[in-house]
Protein: DUF3072 domain-containing protein
Amino acid sequence: MNTKHPTTTHDRRDDAHDDRSHAAENPKTGDDHSNRDKNPDDWTTGDEPMTGAQASYLKTLSEEAGESFDGDLTKAEASKRIDALQEKTGRGT
Structure:
């Protein structure tokens, strides 16, 4: 009895749609910094609570800088605070 299954395009490791082939298309890695450098005050979601990732990084930076951690910041406020603490701790350079 032959139990071998035919190879599908999803089984191929050298598929043309491999994630590595899209690296140049990733907007976060290109030379266009317009969205990455957007002022937090202009963010459409800036007034939402900060993300878990922001809170975690902000807590680490606050501890390193010897400053208090405020867990009630908005996304925009957290971004500004992270920038300030990176400058103070030398992590953002």
Residues 45-93 form one domain.
